[in-house]
Amino acid sequence: MTRTLSPPAPPVLRLESLTRRYGPGLVAVDDISLSLAQGQILALLGPSGCGKTTLLRLIAGFEVPDQGDLYLAHRGAAGVRTLPPEDRDVGVVFQDYALFPHLTVAQNIAFGLEARRRRGRLSAAAVQEQTAEALALVGLAGLDRRFPHQLSGGQQQRVALARALAPRPRLILMDEPFSNLDTQVRVYLRQEVRSILHQVQAAGIFVTHDQEEALAMADQLAVMRQGRLEQWGSPETVYRDPISRFTAEFLTQANFLPAELGAAGWQTDIGCLPQDLITWVGLEPARGGSRAEAMIRQEDLDLVADHQGALTVRDRQFLGREYRYYLTTASGQGLYARLPVDRSLTIGDRVKPLVVPQQVRMYPLGHSSTHQVVAEGKAQ
Fold first, then answer.
1. Contact at 8 Å (CB) between 327 and 312?
2. Lowest-pLDDT range, 141-150, 228-237, 248-257?
C-alpha cells in the first residue's frame, strides 16, 4: 500500500522583503525576510533604534509596510498587508501592559472576546469559558474580581498575557514584556511565559535588548542592526557562530584584540595565535591582509597566575557562581574574563592567558559582513 505524506504545514508567519520608511533617508525596517513555525518563539534582539518595535508593529497591523509582503498561516499564501489588526489572529502584550484600570481582571481579559461577541463571532458562554481558561493558564484563578491596582507588577503582566491568549491566537507579540519587572520576577516569568506558549502551541515573537533574556527564551533569534536583519538562527548557532563583528560584540559581549600577521602566526597583546591553527572562512589568506581583530569570549579566556604573564588583574566582580575579572595588557588594552569562584585571583596579580581551543574568531578590520576567520588553539 502506498502511503501518502501530508504536505508540511505553512509557517505561522512569513515576511518577504518587508520595508518601512519614515521620510527620506530614514528606513526603520529594511528588506527583512524570515519565517516562524508553529509553536516557535522568536526573539528580536538589537540596540535601541534598530527597528525591533517597528517590525513588531508591522506584524500586528498597527503600521503598513512601504514594500514587501507579510503572510499569516491562516490566510494561506494571501498577502495580509491591508488586514486590520483584529482580523490577523494575533495577540499583543504591550510594554506597559495597557490594562484598563476601571475594569476587573476578568473584564480586562475578556475585552477582546466581548468585541467578538458583539460581532456575532462568539456566544456569551464562550466568552466566559475562554476567559476562565486564560485565567487558569496564567495562574490567576481566583483573582478575577480584582482591579489592576490591586495586583503586583508580575500579576499585571500575567493579566496582559492572559488577555492576549484568551482569543486563542496562533501568534503572540510581546514588546519588552519584562522590562518593568525586578530581576527575580523577570527571570521567573520569562520561563513561565515560554512554558505557557509551548503548552498552547502558540508561536511568539518578543522584542528585547537583553542578550540573556533572548538566549534563555527563544527558539529562534534574530539580531537586528539599523533596520536590517544582521543574523537569524537558533540561539546556539548565533552565539557560537556570529557571522559579523557586530553580532559577536552585541550578543556575546566578547573581547576584541588587534592582531597582526607575523612569521609565527597572528600576534596579539596576549600572545601568538599560530597560523597553522587558523581556518579561514569566506576570506582567503592571500586577500586577507596582515591585520585583523581576534574575538575571545569572556568565558573562553582562561587565566593562570604567572609573574611573567601578559595580563594584570585590575578589578574583580563577584557574580555568585563566578568572578568577572577586568584585565589590562602591557599596552593598556582592557579585557574581561569569567572564572569559577574556586579559581580566585587577586587584584594586582600578573596572569598568563590561555584561550579555549576552537573558540577564537578573527575578523578583518573594517569588515562587518559574514567574512570571518576561525582560530583554534591556545595563545602562546
1. yes
2. 248-257
